Amino acid sequence: MQIIVQKYGGSSIAEPELIKNIARRVVETKQKGNRVVVVVSAMGDTTDELLKMAHQITASPCDRELDMLLSTGEQISIALLVMAINNLGCSAVSLTGSQAGIVTDDVHSKARIMKIDPDRVNQELEQDKVIVVAGYQGITEKGDIATLGRGGSDTTAVALAASLKANICEIYTDVDGVYTADPRIIPQAFKHNFISYDEMLELASLGALVLQPRAVEFAKNYAVPLLIRSSFNDCAGTLVGEVATVENCRPVSGVTHDLNVAKIGIFDVPDCPGIAKDIFQCLADEQINVDMIIQGWVRDDRNDIVFTVTRADLETALPVVEKIVREIGASGFVYNDRVAKVSIVGAGMITNSGVAADMFKALAEEGINIEMISTSEVKVSCVIDEGQAIKAVQALHAEFFE
Amino acid sequence: MQIIVQKYGGSSIAEPELIKNIARRVVETKQKGNRVVVVVSAMGDTTDELLKMAHQITASPCDRELDMLLSTGEQISIALLVMAINNLGCSAVSLTGSQAGIVTDDVHSKARIMKIDPDRVNQELEQDKVIVVAGYQGITEKGDIATLGRGGSDTTAVALAASLKANICEIYTDVDGVYTADPRIIPQAFKHNFISYDEMLELASLGALVLQPRAVEFAKNYAVPLLIRSSFNDCAGTLVGEVATVENCRPVSGVTHDLNVAKIGIFDVPDCPGIAKDIFQCLADEQINVDMIIQGWVRDDRNDIVFTVTRADLETALPVVEKIVREIGASGFVYNDRVAKVSIVGAGMITNSGVAADMFKALAEEGINIEMISTSEVKVSCVIDEGQAIKAVQALHAEFFE
Asked: What is the interface pTM, i.e. ipTM, of the complex?
């Protein structure tokens, strides 16, 4: 008997009719003889409405209480979905993150899953029930509710799939699968039938908002096959798995852009061992995720360090940077929150020289200035002015796919 | 250091401004040097809205899932109230029923508290925090969320007060205290400064919607002093405690009415041992609370049994009664859901003869026909036509208080 984990996002369950639609999909999967575990997010804009309530009370609610508040959104979803499944004559039970045995660390609002104790889930599966688990949440060792941060429901689904040794983890969303670029911007973009974890990881990190990067990483580490599909139609979707080199005839699998980027530059950083650690440890201590980091050529025992953070983290980052600049004796810092990141991603890139050069050429031909460059084995990213982001994606898609 | 438990009902926290108002009361109590544990209900009509969502999915949601759904209402309240308390510079922490160690039986939607494990609450109190606990909910031995039924937040507050050996349990509501009758109907009604548990128990059971009867019973059994006050003003309220006979100069302390009554009559019940048990066990098995029970004089080895239930339970009760009638060989049954119950309550009644006769006389003078009578040590109740309920309360208040 196959075990299938299905995850449905907020737009897939925004209204009672959509919940009934999902219930039908779930029951069909069950009736084909599978064991089914479903993970759901909060309905539509429930999370935003709860946040609004919090901000009517205070401008700076504490993270533990925000988690207590926001976790109710998924709890409402699981109860309603089980009612809809029961209504179709199928036995089902809802479980909160805590009840599903999802244990996290205690970094409220950005918690990470430490372990999953699947006893209760297995017990209910043994009784032939469909299990509906609240995504995005878990319980700390102390017994407090912690959320995994936005998009955390993907991680819940993949972690449960890994823990239950599920045959597949299906991620239902409002798009048909993973495209070569955002089809709302690039009409010529086409859908992949298969991509590798590494490519998906880069695509997910880089603004293709289909799937949470942490979820992909988890899936890769535990070799959980992912299927990304739409909950609104029966398109085949995109399968994400281990790289199959023969399939990679194209060096590039996607072009992405991300407007949620701000860059910070620190000038005249003394060139001595441990200085980078000092800077980025301070930022990590404040739970600020740093993305790209560029360090220039050392001149006169000093150099400049430039890095990017999300725009949401910028406000928290600036006072930290100010303090660092004082402490390490740098000459000053600047920031710019009107930049964007465009990237090309592809597992085939590593064996194809000249891909990066083709990218820079395509951007140059459109008169787009590159402010930062960062590369990995499967991607090349450039920070540019945010006003040129769309034009850049169009040029890059034309260069590599048309 | 005194321990004070405060309970705030739904109307006291219906809006952000009201939540801030409660936070001020809580912080004032804390600043007077007390340890404070707060129990809250769901905001305003949140519970009704959640029920509406459930009924958009299915006409008959299962109780376990309803509990999962409805318990989110209180969880939202506790998070928001803690944010408001924190905002006033006071340290506080929210706890769900489960986190507060409230263990219930597994009768979903009508669960009873089995025990309270106050470890976490005590631990947080030791750290000088205000504790805000979700009312109305607990956790079963199996780990499922169960609700205590409507008004269960009162029970949560009293049970916590008993378990923490609190000095007082303050019940904040939208009325100033316990009156001799509903002041909206009887302008001459006046407020009691003190009444006994037994009187409050009868008053609470009989439709004076100030306090949940189970909560009063709990308070009596564990000798928890209750103070019933308004959250909208600083009136002294009504203290509920052990009877102090000297204070009871009046035989009657209140007149109540209850429109949520339906009566059912079973005709020609065979007169043999165990037959009443058969009837009422079947009803109890369906979680139907039977209130008054009247059995007439046995004639020809048969008699009629008449009893009352709430109107909400009538629909569930009728098929049970139909089955019973068949099984025991009664001749048939009738019901009437257009009746009301009016009662007089008073701990002094037991030492004052003639009180019941005064009640019947007052009703007779208004031409009100009495359909059923039931008495206890501290009350006399009459079932009458619902159209005459208000007139009956006015006549009884005039008879005993004016």
From this structure: 0.77
Average pLDDT, chain A: 90
Nearest-neighbour CA in chain A from B235: distance (Å): 27
Indicate if A262 and A169 belong to the same structural domain: no
pLDDT at A246: 41
Q: Determine the average pLDDT of the residues in A25-30.
A: 97
Q: Are both B162 and B278 inside the same structural domain?
A: no
Q: Does the beta carbon of A146 lie under 8 angstroms from any beta carbon of chain B?
A: no
Measure the CA–CA gap between B188 and B390, rounded to whole angstroms. Answer: 14
- Out of A66, A72, A78, whose CB is closest to B75? A72
Q: Which of A322, A218, A222 is nearest to A264 (CA)?
A: A322
Single out the residue of A26, A4, A27, A36 nearest to residue A166, CA to CA.
A4
What pTM does this model have?
Answer: 0.79
Instruction: Summarize pLDDT for B335-370 with one digit per residue, the tens.
Output: 999 999 999 988 777 667 688 888 999 999 999 988
- Check B83 against A65: CB less than 8 A apart: yes
Pick from B54, B86, B143: CB nearest A83: B54
Q: Which residue of A has its CA nearest to B100?
A: A143
Decide which of A174, A204, A222 is a domain's last residue.
Answer: A174
Closest among B215, B177, B253 to B39, alpha carbons compared: B215
Rounded Cα–Cα distance for residues B179 and A74 (Å): 43
Number of domains in chain B: 2
A150 and A275 in a common domain: no
Structural domain of residue A331, as residue ranges? 255-401
Q: Mind listing the pLDDT tens digit for each residue in B91-120?
A: 999 999 999 999 999 999 999 999 999 999
CB interface of A with B, residues 67-106, below 8 Å: 68-69, 71-72, 75-76, 78-80, 82-84, 86-87, 93-94, 96, 98-99
